[in-house]
Amino acid sequence: MSTLFTKIINKEIPADIVYEDDICLAFRDINPQAPVHLLIIPKKEIVSIDTLTDDDKDILGHIMVTTAKIAKQEGLDENGYRVVTNIGVNGGQSVFHLHFHLLGGRKLTWPPG
Ligand code: AMP
């Protein structure tokens, strides 16, 4: 089922897009939890990593490599950053289109709540 992220991919609703190619899109989170808070999503409608299939290996590899490039672009590589994906209700997922949060620009605490 489509979510609002499909509308962002299709440019039906606005987003602050920082990177786009055929496979993925990266945009700024509307409710940032750190000075830099981006979401990196596949253009393919995938619910979460829990629903990945073997066919998605290339997409996921591409997203991880791209995430690291975007982190560098944002100047996060020197001091470090966090990449996290929430899965399902207990994982805290609220949008059911796979997305990786890229968080940085401050010292992040651990463990998460
Ligand atoms: P999660 O809770 O892991 O599913 O993350 C969903 C994220 O999407 C949250 O951090 C929201 O702030 C973010 N979000 C929801 N709607 C939008 C939007 N229209 N543009 C950008 N980020 C959004």
Task: Please sum up the structure shown.
This protein has 3 helices and 5 strands. It has helices at 4-9, 57-73, 88-91; strands at residues 17-20, 24-28, 36-42, 81-84, 100-104. A 5-stranded antiparallel β-sheet has the order 1-2-3-5-4, with helices on one face.
- The rounded Rg comes to 14 Å
The tally of beta strands, per DSSP, is: 5
Mean pLDDT: 98
Q: Count every helix, treating DSSP H or I runs of 4 or more residues as helices.
A: 3
What sequence of helices (H) and strands (E) makes up the elements?
HEEEHEHE
Question: Architecture in CATH?
Answer: 2-Layer Sandwich
Shape: globular
Percentage of residues in strands: 15-25%
Distance between the termini: 29 Å
Layout: helices, strands, pairs:
Layout lengths: L3 H6 L7 E4 L3 E5 L7 E7 L14 H17 L7 E4 L3 H4 L8 E5 L9
Antiparallel strand pairs: 1-2, 2-3, 3-5, 4-5
Bound molecules: adenosine monophosphate.
The site of adenosine monophosphate (AMP) has 12 residues, from loops.
Could you characterize what this model shows?
This protein has 113 residues and is α+β, with helices and mostly antiparallel strands. The protein has helices at 4-9, 57-73, 88-91; strands at residues 17-20, 24-28, 36-42, 81-84, 100-104. The protein has a 5-stranded antiparallel beta sheet, with helices on one face. The model has no long low-confidence stretch (mean pLDDT 98). The protein has a single domain (4-104), classed as HIT family, subunit A (2-Layer Sandwich). It contains 3 helices and 5 strands, in the order αβββαβαβ. Helix content is 24%, strand content 22%. Adenosine monophosphate binds next to loops. Residues 4, 15, 27, 29-31, 39, 86, 92-95 line the site of adenosine monophosphate (AMP).
